[in-house]
Amino acid sequence: MALSQQDIQVIAEFVRTATKAADVETVISATFQTLKQLGRFDRVRIVYPQGPGRWIEWKAAKNTLGMQLHDEWPAPDKKAVTLFFEAEDAHSGFISSATTKGKAREVLEVIAPQVWSALLLQLTLSRVKKAAVS
């Protein structure tokens, strides 16, 4: 199933929002809102490294959003559609959806690199701010 022109416009707006986001929470929230707008994404997970040996996992389901820290890499669900942020390094992080029907894979293929770029930007800005303070 191909993405429609309207889907592409929604994704373009997401990219603008994520690029200008003030913090990681805004990027995550915008991602989940965009996925809801693009299809029936009931449960979504975003996992990425916070630092060496530390992982952040965001979960969204219906109207809930939660964050959890992990000391070990939280593997994606086996029956989910999962896109890794870096294909050659699964531990770079991923975005995963329990929704496997319709255009789920196509949407995640387009959204995943944008989410990863926005998260990297936020992580870099956070490190620069901490370095400036110290």
Brief sketch in words of this structure:
The protein has 134 residues and is α+β, with helices and mostly antiparallel strands.
Key attributes of the depicted protein:
alpha+beta, Beta-Lactamase, 134 residues, 3 helices
Description:
By secondary structure, this protein is of the alpha+beta class. The protein has a single domain (5-133), classed as GAF domain (Beta-Lactamase, 2-Layer Sandwich). Helices cover 45% and strands 29% of the residues. The protein contains three helices and five strands. It has helices at 5-19, 24-38, 104-133, and strands at 43-51, 54-61, 64-70, 81-86, 89-97. A five-stranded antiparallel sheet has the order 3-2-1-5-4, with helices on one face. Strand 4 (81-86) and strand 5 (89-97) form a beta hairpin. Helix 1 (5-19) runs antiparallel to helix 2, helix 1 (5-19) packs parallel to helix 3 (104-133) and helix 2 packs antiparallel against helix 3. The chain is globular. The N and C termini lie far apart (51 Å).
Q: What topology does this entry show?
A:
Elements: H1 5-19, H2 24-38, E1 43-51, E2 54-61, E3 64-70, E4 81-86, E5 89-97, H3 104-133
Antiparallel strand pairs: 1-2, 1-5, 2-3, 4-5
